[in-house]
Amino acid sequence: MKNIPATDITTDDRSHSQQQSADTLSIGFIGFSALSTPNGWNDYEYILKQHRPKAVQFFAPAIIRQPNDGISNVQLAHEYNTQFIAQVGSISEAKEAIRHKVDAIICQGSEAGGHGLRRELGSSTMALASQVSKMTTIPVLAAGGIVNGKHLASALCVCDGASMGTRFWATKESIGNPKLQQELIKDNSCDDVVRTTMFDQIQNELSSIMWPYPYHSVGALRNQTSLEWEGKTAQELQNAIDKTELLDEYKSAQKASDPCVVCILSGEGVGEIDHVEGAYDVTLRIEKEAIDSINRLQQFSSDSDF
User: Fold this and answer.
1) Kind of pairing between the strands at 161-163 and 26-30
2) Strand (E) positions, 40-189?
3) What whole-number distance in Å separates Cα of residue 84 and Cα of residue 81?
4) What band does 299 get if pLDDT is binned at 50, 70 and 90?
5) CA-to-CA distance for 84 and 75, rounded, in angstroms?
6) I need a labelling partner for 292 at 20 to 30 A (CA). Which of 64, 173, 245, 283 fits?
């Protein structure tokens, strides 16, 4: 984030923009990178004050306190009447979010694509969402492996809704790499997804912003890189990073968008995605599928002898 004053916007334009933003705008933040410095906190407050988002979402971690006065990112959002959504991957993280009076919780299970808690520290999507929903009265959403209306209907049995990543990564509006995006709609299954720290161990060597423990873990499609290093130790991989051409080869693969080598973020629901389409169409179909699934359950209940 950069603190960019809106010097070219008139007062009337700014007022109109802020009113629209207050009704519709939601902004996501990666906690460890967004609020790692005093400037980051200044930028966060600037965004809250200037753009008045309806909600902010934080993850990795969800809850952060300022070093100097102890105010949390939740408190600061509430000072500007912005709702706060916490994305968590464990019961302990959910408890902390509830203590800080967040407005909603996204429960990211280990089936999810992208960054999340290391598998041994997280929980499965439905188990986590179900247990967290019993701990609070605020909205709780399930995330991880959910890509269609049947999955949404399942989530509604244990919590208040769902948050989807991989399904909307495979849409026309996504700003992701189109070559890698095509890998999502090939003949995949949940067996083709792995949650691993291996990709972050490599990519952290190439990035100025390194994903820290315990979030240095991604759900991604298996490929030649994952198969080569799966089952080997982090020290073995580090030795290869330090003593071979691995980093140079990986960097070249990134430039070429080589799906056999680079990380392709994906959740375990990818096997039920077969084409890239518009987000609006995806949303409508998911809604219809969820309603149809719920209606079938109601019919089953009415026909049952129990």
Assistant:
1) unpaired
2) 55-59, 83-88, 104-108, 114-115, 140-143, 161-163
3) 9
4) confident
5) 9
6) 173
Single pTM value for the model: 0.89
Which secondary-structure segment (H or E) carries 202?
A: helix 198-203
- Hey, what are 4's tokens? 């960019």
Taking a C-beta distance cutoff of 8 angstroms, is the pair 36, 66 a contact?
A: no
% of the chain residues with pLDDT over 70: 91
Place of tokens 């060597």: 205
Token pair of 92 as six digits: 């302990």
43, 88, 103, 263, 305 from 121: Cα distances, Å: 31, 11, 24, 22, 43
H helix or E strand, kind and range, residue 28: strand 26-30
The identity of residue 113, as a single letter, is G
Would you tell me the crossing angle of helices 38-51 and 11-24 to the nearest 10 degrees?
A: 100
249's tokens: 């080869």
